[in-house]
Amino acid sequence: MIEQNNFSLTAVSSIDGRYHDKSADLSQYFSEYALIKYRVFVECAWLNHISQLPEFLSLNPHELQLVERLMKDFTLNDASRVKEIEKITNHDVKAVEYFISEQIQTEKLKSLVHFACTSEDINNLAYALALNEYRSRTFNDNVNLLIDTLRKLAIETAENPMLSFTHGQIASPTTMGKEIAVIINRLNSQIQQINQVEILGKINGAVGNFNAHIAAYPELDWPKISEQFIEELGLKSNPYTTQIEPHDWIAEYCHGMIRINNILQDFCVDVWLYISKGYFKSKAISTETGSSTMPHKVNPIDFENAEGNLGLSVALLDYLSIKLTKSRLQRDLTDSTTLRNLGIAFGYQIIALKSLLKGISKLELNEELMLEELNQEPSVLAEAIQTVMRKHGIADAYEQLKAFTRGKVITLENIIEFIDQVDIPEADKVRLKVLKPEDYIGLAKDLAKNI
Hints:
CATH topology of the largest domain: Fumarase C, Chain A, domain 2
Helix content: 55-70%
Structural class: mainly alpha
CATH architecture of the largest domain: Up-down Bundle
Strand order of the largest sheet: 1-2
Largest sheet: 2 strands, antiparallel
Strand content: 5-15%
Number of helices: 22
Order of helices and strands: HHHHHHHHHEEHEHHEHEHHHEHHHHHH
Distance between the termini: 54 Å
């Protein structure tokens, strides 16, 4: 028998093993305990909801207190009891129903537990609640902390000019802060979109028609009762379903998370390259080892870790978005085992977010190197010169600069020589001749500071 304190050493998944300290928070949404907890919550909430209808038996004060306890304070011991019952039923949702029935004294009231429900009525709402709470709590907390950290870095480095690189070649100067601001802006857009994804649910019976409901109480407005119940859970009702809620919203949710992960992967790679170029230095921690054989190394391990985990998250989320939107006829069970992997996809995501925060905290900007390399490339001023020439009607400005700059060693001196030969007003010549690569950054400073 494995001792609990050795679990991280024996866990098959790195999420629960090596990275348990980063991912433990997700157990409240995506563990087996959490799924049972959410199922019990939905069952009890439904029982409480219908017991308030005049046509149904009401909960007595003791039963109401018990139901509220299960909804608010479901324990690990409670979950263990559900698992014991499941060994007999071989059905996870039926085990939840029997567990709740055990708690109720009134025999007639026991018949209202799981009333007119199919298992998927409970499951879809349980997963909806889990994904809603993950998004509003853990995800938003971590991604907003990352945004705040990036914004601070963008503002701190807003005025630090550097070469940019397009197609791997030097391009017009920018500032480090502005490039980080681009990432922030991209993330903000996608975070807004993911938080606007409507989380849907259904509680309409075996094939979505309220068959059993109408058979028992034909006089009741079951679509309205269902909608009110789902809205009380903080979700939106989907009135048109088969046995399952079609999961299109989960696909949309996953796609939104994929885009966020992809942006963060892009950031990881860029920072890795900036570190490789020497633009960023990683703070050395005296007790840490960078390489088992090369003592001098301080590797960008946090960004590499984040990049790898983001890729795993994207791969799983992509499959989930593809698989969950398809179900044979009115239902097959393949979505059931697939949905259990939502926590793995978001586990990788959270590990990556925390690795990024750690990595950013170690970054130090090498301002001197950036400035030195930038000022060694006066050819980047060619764009400014040819644009001013165009302003004054010189049609072949681009061609003239192309012929002058390509394949040559360009210096500030021969740039000034070229400017003197150009037929433009003297005031513009003076302005161009004093222009240095470090000054040719457009609105980069403002863009970074205004993010």
